[in-house]
Amino acid sequence: MKLAPSILAADLADLKGELASIALSGADMVHFDVMDGHFVPNLTFGAPLIRAARAHCALPFDVHLMVTDPGAYLDSLAEARVAQVSFHTEAERYSPRLIRHVTELGMAAGIAVNPQTPLSAVGEVLPLASFVLVMSVDPGFAGQEFISTVWDKLDALAEWRAAEALSFSIAVDGGVTLDNLSRLAAIGVDLAVAGKAFFTAPDRSAFAQAVHRAAP
Which of 28, 36, 62, 173 is catalytic? Predict the structure, then answer.
């Protein structure tokens, strides 16, 4: 599995230092949660901070849009040289069109789904998406525990991918710890987004290595 530490759980007063730490740990990319205070009850940061971070980190940037109007953010994220961006199916009525727009801007397009949202809500866009971001916590705040019912959703999504011979990757965001890495890998998860577990780890490099080594 690949690892994307979630900057939301970092010390934002030392963003430059935290980005350097992520890179030194061997992580694969940096995850940014953009929240607007409407789609979720929290307000974080936007393209200006991501653009500023770009000057201090060479790793690919993965942006998760937890906003009511994801299309309004795409041009500025492309200008910030974001590698991939996901938006919520619950917030967008025309997901296929938005996925195409993300791709046209040169970014990989992902569709995000909340813990309580059935997979049927994203079924029609799975052939179009580069990846599916499965929320394993309620979106909006860092440090939550993995919601147990999401295991069945991950199993079903991996089975769907195999049955339809689709090429999207599976990312999981929320409650990722050393204790559940092997189970995530066994299901077929490709990318683990980790916040609290990574930034509070005694050895961040060891945490990254554990993610990379995770196996059934």
Answer: 173
